[in-house]
Queue: 4 jobs
Job 1
Amino acid sequence: TIALISCQHVETLEKDRGNPVYLGLNEHKLMCAKVGEQPALQPKEQDIMDLYDEPKPVKLFLFYHIQSGRSSTFESVAFPGWFIAVSSEGGCPVILTQELGLADTTDFELNTLS
């Protein structure tokens, strides 16, 4: 289960890039951090609502949610051009990639829970 929480400080971010959201995966929130030469996803234990209540956007934890029909992609705010993907090679199942729609799945269909 993924939680999407909108950023309340959209005026401080780039316009027309998508809806800036914080992502939570189960009890973790997802952040992007530089590991070696490239960014990687890292889960952090903390209530995702803590980010929502921050006085300014916390870019390492923000993603631009881009919707096209029923498909959604998530681009890192801190690392433009890097997208959340599900790896086709196994190992770490959720990764960041710069290759939209190639080897890894970058388009997701979201279903809401009532």
Job 2
Amino acid sequence: MQEITGINHIGIRVSNLERAREFYEQLGFVFIVGPIGPEPVAIMEHPSGVNINFILNANSGSTENILMDIPAKHPGYTHFALNVSNIKSVEKTLIKLGIPVTEGPIKLTDGGVMLFIRDPDNNVIEFHQNA
């Protein structure tokens, strides 16, 4: 479809808005509005233009990511990837913030590098530096 021009936002189900907001603020996202709407939803945006909609209806007792942490492989989105200009700098910042790297850095055959973290609800975030 030629009309698609980009991604408008990423929707992430979370159990606690304040906890999610504090975490994503550490990554440079800015709170815009919320909760709003019948779902309800809260919105944060990064200066790079990446927009996240937090869907505020996750069960608070859940500790597993059903798409990533159980043997059965259910269909669905497993993670989102953020392009970065310097993966080593990202890794140093994550360590300084006390955010554990759950996988990586992994060097790709084309020279790119990626690493993964999880937010407080175990949603997976990839940082990706192109070759």
Job 3
Amino acid sequence: MLRYGFAALAALIGITHNAAAAGNAKHGEQVFGRCAQCHNAKKGGGNGLGPNLSGVAGRKAASLPNFYYSPALKNSGIVWTDAKLKLWLANPQKLVPGTRMAFAGLKQPQDVDDVIAYLHSKK
């Protein structure tokens, strides 16, 4: 019986930890304002200077039609998982050397998580 109590407590702590680590989409939308200079995330909104990011989570990198991606990104083989988005948002040039994206990255890890949560909401 005690073993089940510890398992339940461990599960509860895990759930609480995951919930605390999750991003805040509302704040992510505010942080995305920096990205909105080049990108939009409106479904069907088209591309700007950068590609449309609606539905980017889970999508293969450099896969939207009608956008001229850098050869480095096209050849990266990346699928935009949360882990890859996290690396990209923190430092695009480090993840894909030679990318054309002129963005130094988000310095605050919580901002990165929040933008990822926002992007997940834009499908």
Job 4
Amino acid sequence: MVLDRGKERHSQSSRLKERRLQVQESADKFVALVGERVRKARERRGISRRVLAELSQVSLRYLAQLEGGKGNISIALLGRVSLALDHRIEWLVGADDPWSSEVVRFSEFFRTATLEQRRNVMRLLDPGDPARLREKRLCLIGLRGAGKSTLGKIMSKELSLPFLELNREIEEVSGISANEVMALYGQDGYRRLERQALERIVATTSETVLAVAGGIVAEPETFSYLLRHFHTVWLKARPEEHMQRVRKQGDLRPMKGNPKAMEELRSILTSRESLYAQAEAVLDTSGRTLKQSTKDLVDVVRKLEVI
């Protein structure tokens, strides 16, 4: 038995050593790749290493090590180098060669395209049939206080579809509240459960009205999956109304001990606006009664051909 344990420890130690070597080898290749791209970019600009050092305010020694594939890459310093070369930093570290890759060229066109142009491109490139993928699944997105749960429940009755809240699905699987999930497993753990819950809903039902947490848009892969498999409506409102509605629900946490709560709320709305705007439709509930917002949402959903 003692011998078996000794063999097991030796085996684990060997695996760990092998993994460390693999990680180091990968890191060395990455540093070499970045160095090569910096050198090529400098040569294409027709400037010497000394000039680049002056423009970027990065030491000549650091640049020599970097281009030689032996540098210890600091993101801040690499950022300076990329700015001095008039490059995006991702061009130096991405998997695709920025000078020969059509993917990089396409991404630049896509970056400057209008929202409508982007949607048309996505329709061309997406191999799945959106109508078939989304079926009769409707999802309401937006910040807390926009009316997702309230309007979602009403819409589920209007459409004769079941109503689900993604947080409740997470709680059902984990056996604890969403707040406890966050406290125990952190943001990463919560996001993993969020994605799993979303996939489970897609796998088990083709007809539902779903309300999701406002932060789901911050996880690119999960949000992309949501957009592919649900008809989406962004419920938006003025920051003051968001805050007022949350407080009316009895939740005083947004304001408690935080005099800058409204300023932070505005900042969150601004930072997420472009993400929420990827929804198929937008409905502004500001200054609208519940009855008016319900009628507005029914009209929007009809245009999306969910019903």
